[in-house]
Amino acid sequence: MRIGLFGGTFNPIHMGHLALAENVADSFELDRMIFVPSKVPPHKTEGVIAPELRLRMVELVAAGLGDRFVVSDFEIHEEGVSFTLKTLRHFRDEYPEDAIFFACGTDIFASIGGWYESEALFDYVNFIVVSRSTMSFEELLKRIPQTLLDRVVDAGEYKDEKSGKIILYRMPEVDISSTEIRSILEESYRKANLPDGVYEYIAENGLYRGNE
């Protein structure tokens, strides 16, 4: 099988996240795309609501996307900070014979040199790095450690490796920011590029008002 992982804070999950998940799942013919909400993000805590609330919003979204899309609460129930290495080891143990892909944007992947034991991550998965307007592939390749450049391939050059590759994938731009959405919600509770079920959940529970 081909397994996709889409990790993140999802604070909140929005239409940009859905676009990435569906596009990557279709383009790479994934048998399963797994959303993995983080419990305690290593690099950001301010303004992040409770993990159980973020998990529930992701579950609401996945339920409307079809059987391929599921949600893992692995990081939510793990102790301590949500380090990517721990998560990737877990899913490699679960899918030992399958190709696994971790999807993220260029803006996120650019910081991989500072991730916990970053070189070891490639023992477990391939990374699908999706184009973002905020950072080009050219800029990305200048920022990541030079030791990783031999792993980089364009999406059309990927040869079914189980792990170890950095796959550059260009998809139609969806310029949506969780930070902007939180600002809009705090100010006026307009829908702001949120899926229907997520917007209703946020409104019903009074989320992103003040210091929840």
The overall average pLDDT, rounded, is: 92
The CATH topology corresponds to: Rossmann fold
- The shape is globular
Over the alpha carbons, how many angstroms does the gyration radius reach?
A: 17 Å
Query: What are the secondary-structure elements, in order, as H or E?
Result: EHEHEHHEHEHEEHH
Helical percent range?
A: 25-40%
CATH homologous superfamily - what is it?
HUPs
Strand order of the largest sheet: 3-2-1-4-5-7-6
Number of helices: 8
Overview of the molecule:
By secondary structure, the chain is of the alpha/beta class. It has a single domain (2-175), classed as HUPs (Rossmann fold), CATH 3.40.50.620. It contains eight helices and seven strands; from the N terminus they run βαβαβααβαβαββαα. The protein has helices at residues 15-27, 51-62, 74-77, 84-94, 106-109, 137-143, 178-187, 196-205; strands at residues 2-8, 32-37, 69-71, 99-105, 126-130, 152-154, 166-169. The chain has a seven-stranded parallel sheet with strand order 3-2-1-4-5-7-6. α2 runs antiparallel to α8 (196-205). The longest helix is centred in the first third of the chain and has 13 residues, at 15-27. It is globular, with a radius of gyration of 17 Å. The protein starts with a strand and ends in a 7-residue tail after the last helix.
